[in-house]
Amino acid sequence: MNRITFSIVCVVMMIAGQGYTQPAARIRIAAASDLKFALDSVADTFRKTHPGTVDITYGSSGKLFEQISNSAPFDIFFSADITYPQQLKEKQLTLSEIYVYGKGRMVLWSKKADPKKEGMNTLLLPSVLKIAIANPQHAPYGKRAEEALAYYKLMERVKSKLVFGENISQTAQFVTTGAADAGIVALSLALSPNMKKEKGSYFLIPEESHQPLEQGAVITKHAQGNAYAKIFLDYIKSDAANAILRHFGFTKP
Amino acid sequence: MLDLAPFYLTLKLAVVSTAILFVISVPVAYGLAFSRWRGKAIIDAFVGLPLVLPPSVLGFYLLLAFSPQHAFGHFLEKYFDLRLVFTFPGLVVASVIYSLPFMIQPIQNGFRSVPVALKEAAYTLGKSRLTTLTKVLIPNMKGALLTGCMLTFAHTIGEFGVVLMVGGNIPNETRVISVTIYDEVEAMNYHQANVYASILLVFSFLVLISVYLVNNRAFKVDPYHD
Amino acid sequence: MIELAIARKLHGAGGAVNLNLDIKIETGDFVTLYGPSGAGKTSILRMLAGLLTPDDGRIVCDRQVWFDKSKRINLRPQFRNLGMVFQEYSLFPNMTVQGNLEFALQKDQPKTNVEELLQLTELEQLRDKKPALLSGGQKQRVALARALVRRPKLLLLDEPLSALDTAMQTKLQDYILRVHRQYHLTTLMVSHDLNEVIKMSKRVLVLEDGTIKKDGSPLDVLPLDNLKPFITGNLSP
Fold first, then answer.
1. How many domains does chain C have?
2. Do chains A and B touch (3 or more CB pairs under 8 A)?
3. SS in 3 state form for B99-133?
4. How deeply is A163 buried, as exposed, middle or buried, from its count of CB atoms within 10 A (0-12, 13-18, 19+)?
5. Nearest Cβ partner for A71 among B12, B68, B187
6. Which domain holds residue C138?
7. Residue B77 pairs with which residues in a beta bridge?
8. Domain containing residue A88
9. C51 with B123: Cβ contact below 8 A
């Protein structure tokens, strides 16, 4: 029994000792899910010239806003809806000005049908039984999707077919796996390698059908004294970063 | 390519939670097993709550309790410089609470499974209740203790809802393996998700097998078979 | 000297029994408690040991008050100077024979006590065996030895031999008598075996419906009509 106890203690100590060597420069970012591939790329290139740790947590902008309001330890907040950073500012939880890094666009994506043919009316096809959109309560893309559906007078007819993703990433996951037959997802995700290889097609939803998806980034109060955070936000404004964002479909506001 | 941090974090959480819960549970289970206080039913029910409550309910109330905007969280931050929301210590506290019945109930049953006459014999030999607990009761319920630890360990590794709500999915801090797998699926990195999930599956299976083997061999003395 | 004046309501298979006794046991006596099943014999022993609380009364042992309802005294078993042998032996499965005996030792007592009892009950060969590997008779001897390791003054035996075969019973009866004499014990034994009672004790308490109906020497007090033809030896008329 003693030998067993000894080995258990060893394992415990080994495990407990993990993760205590960290470089000096470090930031934690909360980012809207539509930035998943774009921001990962930006962070990778950023670290080449400015070594350090960049930890990114993706989620729906509304949820992340809630967490930051409740003192979640994030240094920079990238939101798909600029009203959230604005609210943070009102609560005096921000350190920098809000930087609008781009405008998001939405697409109608499907594997089953070809949205390019019918456009929004694809949603009325009998083969489309389930339509995925992001949860309008806290995901900006969800709210805009509802607006677009209302604009095209489709809401009443498709309401019963809607399924809601926790954030725009999960919404995309619903359509790529076929759990939903069609979905309204972020252009930035549709352009990502993961979705491109899924062999679906999409229809770019006209901007006039919904409120703009103005994306804003801001440094939070948690980053007080963290110079690395400021350096990162400056980098986002650079040409290199902008090129990546453009590549993923974020247009200049 | 494969980030091992979530594994270490998850193991750390499971080991620490199980250890803390074990120390807390032995006295509580002892009281529940042997006390004749009428209020015992309330404590029993309270201990069993995590079995019945949806993780989101538990997560919600813990989030409220830990938040620095509210009384308890504020108190912790002011006097102990301790923040429980979105931190590893917060996950440990949450784990201990939602795994409570998984440790206490097996140990409680273990205490009751030891024949009362053994306890009484020790008392008539002049042994105190503490000595009886450590030298007579515990050595004769090792199986129950192991079961409690194993269930708690496994339950902590598998927990998702509470961890996500209270921990917030912060890399190297609260992003445990269950959350990581969910993340990868969400990001449509199905291959990555599969690798993580398979490792976890194999690991869990191995833990269970070894526990059952040890349990069967070490604790039974059968005079009629080899 | 032991004073046992207790009352308690017992709930048994045959209904409720109101136990009520007032007896005195002299130091050095070997007393048997005899009676049908369910009469309350085990309960009396348990109350003496402190494992069961009487509803009312007093228990005094060698001028030490163990229980007194009116004065709210109820000494826990740990503090009563006695040794008890249970009907189910209750040996500790996680300890060897020697371990069981050593566990019973008090801090200031010498290990020679253990050796002595191992010899007395002829258990030296079995000292390193765990209880699961012992026969019924061996377990009973260990239980007896364990109860005596710390040299108590009072020995309580709860039907200790009922599960054994006749040959083993005889052997163990001899052990019990031997230790009773060797350690100058006061012994109270519960039994429903007539032969055993006659052989071992000078005084029998016959318990029926919760009270002591008869109190005297075995031959005077026991219902021997069926056995008279089988009893050899001198019978006083």
1. 2
2. yes
3. CHHHHHHHHHHHHHHCCHHHHHHHHHCCCCHHHHH
4. middle
5. B68
6. 82-152
7. none
8. 24-103+213-247
9. yes
What residues of chain B, 64 to 93, have a C-beta less than 8 Å from chain A?
A: 67-69, 83, 85-87
Q: Which residues of C touch B222 (CB under 8 A)?
A: 132
User: Is residue A114 domain-shared with residue A91, that is, in the same domain?
Assistant: no
ipTM associated with this complex: 0.88
B124 and C146: CB-CB below 8 Å? no
Phi–psi pair at B170, nearest 5 degrees:
-100, 120
CB contact under 8 A, A198 and B16: no
Looking at the structure, tell me whether residues C86 and C28 fall in a common domain.
Answer: no
Q: A74 near A30, Cβ under 8 Å?
A: yes
DSSP E strands in C52-114: the ranges are 56-61, 64-68, 73-74, 82-85
Residues A121 and A200 occupy one common structural domain: yes
| Residue of chain B with shortest Cα separation from C145 | B125
**pLDDT tens track for C116-155:** 889 888 889 999 999 999 988 889 889 999 999 988 999 9
pLDDT tens for residues A15-62? 555 544 555 789 999 999 999 999 999 999 999 999 999 999 999 999
- Chain B residues with CB within 8 Å of chain C CB: 115, 117-118, 120-128, 135-136, 139-140, 221-223
- Please indicate, yes or no, if residue C178 is contained in any of the structural domains: no
| Model pLDDT for residues B144-203, shown as the tens digit of each residue | 999 899 989 989 998 998 998 888 888 888 899 999 999 888 888 889 999 999 999 998
Residue (of A93, A95, A120, A94) closest to A108 by Cα position = A120
- The owner of tokens 């009364």 is C57
Using CA coordinates, name the residue in chain C closest to B128.
Answer: C78
Same domain, A125 and A191: yes
Question: What order of strands is seen across the sheet that includes strand A53-59?
Answer: A53-59, A26-32, A76-79, A213-219, A99-104
Average pLDDT over residues B105-112: 94
- Whether A235 is covered by a domain: the verdict is yes
User: The domain that contains A81 carries what CATH number?
Assistant: 3.40.190.10
- Rounded CA separation C76/C35 (Å): 27
The CATH class that applies to domain B5-218 reads mainly alpha
* Cβ within 8 Å, pair B118-C90: yes
Q: Is residue C42 part of a domain?
A: yes
Q: How many domains does chain A contain in total? A: 2
Tokens, residue A119 = 């456009």
Chain B residue with minimal CA distance to A22? B172
Q: CB-CB: which of B117, B120, B223 is closest to C133?
A: B223
Any chain A CB within 8 A of the CB of B194? no
- Give chain A positions within 8 Å (CB) of B18: none
Chains B and C touch (3+ CB pairs under 8 A): yes
The verdict on C1 and C76 lying in the same domain is yes
Answer whether C192's CB lies under 8 Å from C37's CB. yes
Mean pLDDT of chain A: 89
